[in-house]
Design a protein that fits this description.
Shape: globular
Strand order of the largest sheet: 1-6-5-4-7-8-13-14-3-2
Number of strands: 16
Helix content: 40-55%
Largest sheet: 10 strands, mixed
Strand content: 15-25%
Number of helices: 23
Length: 565
């Protein structure tokens, strides 16, 4: 059997000219919780259960269900453990801090035994299936410490969910004598990690699987996971850009800036950026859904604030819009749900095939319910076509391709024109549009993310040493100084429930939405009327790495409000 070893990412990096920041950041030593600074002992809690559908999840994961939450405590043990070979995969979209997870994992397995080895699978889970890998040595790791991106081994979106994939994976794991696999990813990637852990446990293959919580969207969180890594850096990066725009907005005083932010499934990024920058308007998808607002309601809300500011002579402002807003409007959410069902072939579970766009649109219009057809017909023609035609590889509506910021500004302009004709509005409305997404995914990690990610990786090595599988590495109490952080692991099954995906019921990690009764949203709701009328902009400036602790090491506003710090 032949294996392909890829070294392109390293060669590319070495021949790059490094910036002054890269050189300086390479010297930064991430902080570790005190409990991880020497030998540890695993303290086990009570048995756990899934957040929903307990019996179904238990039946699907009999070997990894009900495991206890783990917390590590310092130990006096000094016996060196046997060497262990570990594999690592970066899965899904990039998030700042991924390189530090790998750095922490590398340092952790080497501290277990210097003869331990770390192998990286190239371009995501597909690298495991295709036997595409490279050994990550100290000279490689040192080039990537405290840097953004996933370019050390690349990432990919291949789903690990089929038996033939698991069996192809075990071939290379056995060949390299890998006893544990760490999957760094979001909710879908860690769901796959849980499925893989269960499969290998059932087969008694002797391979542990550990997950690490990654996503800038911030929707992989619960009582055990305070935040997903990358969220802190991405929000600070976007907030810097929003602050720059607000400074320009307040200087020119002639534009309304409509700013769409990443976050299809939840509004955590939009809310955090609003807390940091205090825009005139921030929409929160979860509130729109809870209040059962229509698209027309959202347009009226924005137009009312625009008109009120215009009455004071302020024909300018900023609007923050979550990427997935459209999908949270109840009527459109219901439409999208039926579109996902109708455009999926029930026999194969794959997207239906059509000869062309018009045939697909005609099929949709003849197969969806009358009330959903009415909603589809009420939308601007270009948006309706996008909903009918643009699908992701799994057959779902490509909500992220809908230019919600332009759709809303266009509808607000139309509404204001109607009000002007009726004598209800006398102002000027000119717009600029922005979408901040990729700008934040590979930013150099903030001190918080650099420390948090390094701890997550190092902690994963301790879960491996403790013989755990089907666990996610967790670090808690992160609004306190790093030495006081709490390290451990949570069974991935504890976070799972059954959801409808692509026409079938599947076990998945439950996404965390913005809690409307939570401290962050309540703070926002208490201040948004003031921010709407006044110009209360905050300009966070660029992410700071060197300077006072109160500037450089602080966590997100979300965490500070949640933990009352």
């Amino acid at each position: 059997m032949r294996f392909h070893r890829t070294v392109t990412p390293l060669i590319y990096y070495i021949h790059m000219t490094k910036s002054a920041l890269q050189i300086a950041r390479a010297a930064y030593q991430p902080k570790l919780p005190k409990a991880l600074q020497g030998p540890v002992v695993a303290k086990e809690g009570a048995a756990t259960q899934s957040v929903g559908d307990q019996e179904k999840i238990k039946q699907l994961f009999p070997n990894t269900y009900g495991l206890p939450v783990i917390e590590f405590e310092a130990s006096a043990a000094t016996t060196q453990q046997p060497a262990v070979n570990v594999g690592v995969i970066l899965s899904g979209g990039q998030a700042p801090g991924g390189h530090n997870v790998i750095s922490g994992l590398f340092d952790g397995v080497k501290s277990i035994n210097p003869a331990s080895k770390l192998y990286g699978f190239i371009l995501g889970p597909g690298g495991l299936v295709d036997h595409n890998y490279m050994e990550l040595t100290a000279d490689i790791i040192d080039e990537y410490r405290n840097t953004g991106g996933f370019d050390i081994i690349g990432s990919g979106r291949t789903k690990l969910e089929k038996e033939e994939q698991f069996e192809k994976g075990i071939e290379i794991l056995r060949e390299l004598n890998i006893k544990a696999l760490v999957i760094i990813g979001g909710d879908d990637s860690n769901t796959n990690a849980c499925v893989l852990a269960e499969y290998y446990a059932a087969k008694k293959y002797g391979v542990q699987v550990i997950g690490c919580p990654k996503t800038i969207d911030g929707d992989l969180k619960n009582e055990q996971i305070e935040t997903s890594f990358g969220f802190d850096t991405a929000c600070k990066t976007y907030s810097e850009l929003i602050g720059n725009i607000q400074r320009d907005c307040n200087s020119a005083r002639k534009y309304w800036h409509f700013i769409k932010l990443m976050g299809r499934s939840a509004s955590h990024i939009a809310l955090e950026c609003a807390l940091q920058t205090q825009p005139n308007i921030c929409l929160v998808s979860e509130e729109v859904e809870a209040k059962e607002q229509s698209l027309d309601d959202v347009v009226n809300y924005i137009a009312t604030i625009v008109a009120a500011r215009a009455a004071k002579g302020d024909n300018y402002g900023t609007v923050l819009i979550p990427e997935g807003l459209i999908e949270f409007i109840p009527a459109i959410k219901k439409l999208i749900k039926e579109l996902n069902e109708v455009l999926t072939d029930p026999a194969t579970g794959e997207p239906r095939e059509f000869a062309g766009a018009e045939e697909q649109i005609a099929f949709v219009e003849s197969h969806i319910a009358k009330d959903n057809l009415a909603v589809l017909k009420s939308l601007p023609e270009d948006v309706a076509r996008q909903l009918c035609l643009d699908r992701d590889p799994h057959g779902n509506v490509q909500v992220s391709l809908i230019e919600t910021e332009k759709l809303l500004s266009r509808m607000v302009a139309k509404r204001l024109a109607e009000w002007k004709q009726a004598g209800k509005y006398d102002g000027k409305f000119s717009t600029q549009h922005h979408f901040f997404g990729y700008e934040g995914r590979c930013a150099a990690p903030s001190n918080y993310d650099a420390d948090y990610c390094y701890s997550l990786g190092f902690n994963a090595s301790r879960l491996i040493a403790a013989g755990k599988t089907g666990y996610m590495s967790i670090i808690r109490n992160t609004t306190a100084p790093a030495a006081e952080w709490v390290a451990g692991g949570v069974p991935i099954t504890m976070m799972m429930n059954i959801e409808r995906r692509n026409g079938a019921d599947k076990p998945v990690i439950r996404k965390a939405l913005v809690e409307l009764d939570g401290a962050p949203f309540r703070y926002f709701a208490a201040h948004r009327d003031e921010w709407a009328q006044a110009t209360s902009y905050v300009y966070p400036g660029p992410i700071q790495y060197f300077g006072p602790t109160e500037v450089c090491d602080q966590s997100t506003k979300t965490l500070q409000l949640e933990q009352a710090r």
